[in-house]
Model the fold of this input.
Amino acid sequence: MKKVLTELDKGEKGRITKILSGIESSASGAGHGHGARHGQTEPRNVKRLKNLGVQVGKDLTVIAKQPFGPIVIEIDDIQTAIGRGMAHKIYVSLRGSVDRDQEG
Done:
């Protein structure tokens, strides 16, 4: 099952399948809008997420989730907080949760 990162609950695990760049809805293409500028290969938000270790194919765990604050995730044993606006652009394929894995 695929979900947007903001839909996951604390303890849920998944693999990042897609990160929206912010230009997908722009009919005029790259260079016009919020993501990429002429000559850039990737938008700033995608580059920023990559620098934090947030990339397609990476496994993550939701560590903390506040009602209106950032979502804290863990990737490769590193925890980072992602703002809700950015988290809403990250799609995740669910892998289950810690609690479900330990039930017997």
